[in-house]
Amino acid sequence: MKQQTLIALSALMFSSSVLANGGFEPNKKACVNVGKEITRVSTEMDVAKSGIQKSWLKRQLSALETKRNSCSTKGFKANHSELAKL
User: Fold this and answer.
1) Per the record's keyword annotation, is Signal included, yes or no (predicted)?
2) Which one of 6, 35, 38, 84 has the lowest number of neighbouring Cβ atoms within 10 Å?
3) Average pLDDT for runs of 10 along the chain of length 86
């Protein structure tokens, strides 16, 4: 009984962490792409005129920051030279 409870709790914790990131699983390429997307969204937010568009971009930026934090936690961190290659 204890073993079944431990397995169920482990599965629940794993699925919660995956869902919190929207199913994002960090890897080197994905983390470099997150950095590029943050740059793109930030630039777009600087030129956005509509309040609705700015609000949407802020939410997108927040989600991307969460993904970047996940990348850092897993040990994937893009440096500037990697961003320049792509």
Assistant:
1) yes
2) 84
3) 54 48 78 90 92 93 92 70 44
